[in-house]
Amino acid sequence: MVNAYHKVSFHGIDMEVPHVPLREFVTICVIPDRKRDLIEFRFWWNKKLVHTVVLSKTLFPSVHF
Question: Which domain of life does the protein's organism represent (predicted)?
């Protein structure tokens, strides 16, 4: 859900999501780029891509199976 500052928090990292009304739910698609050690976050609202953010994967905890 978009907070009062137009941000969404994911694992303690705040990411700005402009063009979405406050307190609206967004769908987040997380796409890893293993070659460049990056993670792309795609924010969808009302079936439209509204914003993307690319961050280093080192900012997030590793997942081990």
Answer: Bacteria
- What is the rounded distance in angstroms from the CA atom of residue 21 to the CA atom of residue 8? 12
The boundaries of the domain holding residue 49 are 7-59
CA distance 15 to 53: 8
The pairs formed by 3-11 with CB atoms below 8 angstroms and a separation of 24 or more are 8/43, 10/41, 11/59, 11/60, 11/61
Count of the separate structural domains present in the chain? 1
Long-range pairs, 30-39, Cβ under 8 A, ≥24: 32/57
Check: CB of residue 26 under 8 Å from CB of residue 19: no
